[in-house]
Amino acid sequence: MNPIKALQTTAVLIRLNHGKENISKLLTLLYLAEREALLHWGFPLLFEDLYLTKRGPIVGGISDRLSAGCHDDWNEYLRTDNEDVILIKNPGTDELSMAEWSLLRRIYKQHENMDSRAMMPFIRNLPEYKTMQRGREAIDYAELLNKNLDTTKYNIDAMLKNIDALKAEDIYETFFNFEN
Question: Full-prediction pTM beyond 0.85?
Answer without folding.
Answer: yes
